[in-house]
Amino acid sequence: MNRTTLSLIAGVTALAAVTGLAALTTPDASDANTAKAAAELPVERTSLVCPAPSISDLAETTYTSFTPVTKGAASDGKGELQSAAQEKGDAADGKGEKGDDAGKAGKADKPVLEGKEPGTPVSGDASGADSPALIGTADGKFAPGWTVQETTEVAAGTGRGLQGVNCTAPDTEFWFPGASTAPDRTDYVHLTNPDDSAAVVDIELYGKDGALETTVGEGITVQPHSGEPILLSTLTSEKQDNMTVHVSVRSGRVGASVQALDDKLGGDWLAASADPAGSLVLPGIPKDATSVRLVAFTPGDADADLKVRLASPSGLITPAGNETLHVKAGMTSAVDLGDVMQGEAGSLVLTPTDRSVPVVAAVRVVRGKGDKQETAFIPASRAVGTRATAVDNRAKGTTLSVTAPFGAAEVKVTASAGSEGGAAASKSYSVKSGTTQDVAVPVPSGLKGTYALTVESVSGGPVYASRTLAVSADGVAGFTVQTLPDDRGMVAVPEADEDLSVLQR
Q1: Confidence band (pLDDT; 50, 70, 90) for 39?
Q2: Whether 66 contacts 415, CB under 8 Å
Q3: How remote is the C-alpha of 265 from its chain's centroid?
């Protein structure tokens, strides 16, 4: 079951709660007036999972939760994050895995993070290598557009720098182009199971010559309410600089993210690419990027030929020497674009040169020089759609990039109240067709703490966005980039033409 299906179920649940319907009759297909236009209703329940943040004892992690104010949402509810271990104990009727005492202790513990009110972010901290995976649930007024960010600062060692990831909705399939088993890389696939029954997962790896032979990649069991980090180098003996990881779930569902740690270039999280599609947008590459590597993969049985363009502040341009990319079926392709940004904001736009073949893609971005380099990843993203949010923004070091690759658009950006004080502020922007803008974001007046940025599409073509968060420590410019796909906080539910109240029980 994919995320769209889950959102639809949530929307139908919301409709039932509003109307009190116990059943719906199937309309006669011959009657064109049976159903009215679809109604947009807020979802009533949302689940997110956050991977265990780090293997370093020097790690400091911040979790930030935020729900935008949504018209028509319920008047009550809650949004909270629990450690996976505690959820596991709670699930066993107060007994947990280690008996009554463990279960009672789990019941007594408070959530790691609890929401305040929609419109105000809330943050919590963790430290060291013992921080567990987290499982989150929001319902009622906290559910529509609920967003949680996990941000980790690692002072030294492999993966040092800033690592950030949006906690993800559980699903049944994920694609991660850009992973690696190179000698200087330590990459983990983090699997988190939020449910009461075990999930069974397959992990497939694809390198430059096709599928890689794996030893234990099939039938991996992820226990209920638990997180499982899988070191990629334990799945294959082959050393590949660029590979694509495919996570598919046989039974149950999981959240999945790849943690990519480099001995010299720092590290970050690689979030899943948007679903395979003929055209892809990778938004918001930092303008001071010193190296950009594009990695693409096509899961079908046909090769893909892609036109590679950069949506710059002045319009779409073609990188010299990298006008197209040929992606062989079932093989991972990579191309180094070098210093393609030339000091300007930009987004990569991939479109088919001829027939459309579904692909997935991501870019690895490097900033800095010498021993002060840092890495982040930007996967192909879904459009902002109706609304999308980035959280854990700071007074300094926050950059919002917005691109409209296929037609001019207008967006509204709202900076929330601060987590510790401050008033919300909004501003509208016009984005020309084929361009990317690093916009001057509104900052909450009297800001204290962190704040959320919510982007809403007002008019025009599809908009894509990402947020870059930069934090410098010891002369190293640590940074992380998160895309802003539609939060799916609203769902379209067809309205019945006739009064079905007689169906109440």
Answers
A1: confident
A2: no
A3: 22
Taking the C-alpha atoms of residue 190 and residue 212, their distance in angstroms, rounded to an integer, is 20
List, in sequence order, every residue forming a beta bridge with 468; answer none if it has no partner: 399, 481
Is residue 12 pLDDT above 60, yes or no?
A: no
> What is the pTM (predicted TM-score) of this model?
0.87
pLDDT of residue 458: 97
Distant-in-sequence, close-in-space partners of 257: CB < 8 Å, separation ≥ 6: 51, 165, 168, 189, 190, 269, 270, 271, 272
> Phi and psi (nearest 5°) for 348?
-85, 135
CA angle 211, 213, 214 (to 5 degrees): 115
352: number of Cβ within 10 Å:
16
Residue 9 clears pLDDT 50, i.e. is over it: no
Q: In what order do the strands lie in the sheet with 291-297?
A: 332-338, 291-297, 360-367, 374-379
User: How many residues does this entry show for the chain?
Assistant: 505
Q: What pLDDT, on a 0 to 100 scale, did the predictor assign at position 95?
A: 39
Decide if 173 contacts 236 (C-beta within 8 A): no
The predicted-structure confidence for 244-267, as pLDDT tens digits, reads as follows: 999 999 999 999 999 999 999 999
CA separation, residue 250 to residues 133, 247, 274 (Å): 22, 10, 20
Q: Ramachandran region of residue 215, left (φ > 0), alpha (ψ -120 to 50) or beta? A: alpha
100-108 vs 84-91: helix axis angle to the nearest 10?
Answer: 120
Report the alpha-carbon angle 220-480-433, nearest 5.
Answer: 105
Going 424 to 429 to 434 to 436, the CA torsion angle's sign is: negative
pLDDT tens for each residue of 110-148: 899 999 999 999 999 988 788 899 999 999 999 999 999
Element (H, E) at 87: helix 84-91
Of 299, 276, 478, nearest to 379 by C-alpha is: 276
Q: Which residue has the tokens 């363009």?
A: 309
Greatest C-alpha distance within the chain? 73
Average pLDDT in the chain: 87
Give the tokens for residue 425.
């502020």
370-423 tens-digit pLDDT: 888 999 999 999 999 999 999 999 999 999 999 999 999 999 999 999 999 999
Q: Which two tokens stand for residue 385?
A: 């759609």
- The token pair that represents 208 in the structure block: 């430059």
CA 129 – CA 59 distance, rounded (Å): 7
As a dihedral over the C-alpha atoms of residue 422, residue 386, residue 134, residue 394, rounded to 10 degrees, the angle is -30
Nearest to 226 by CA among 86, 361, 340, 390: 86
Confidence (pLDDT) at 417: 96
Token digits of residue 113: 């993070």
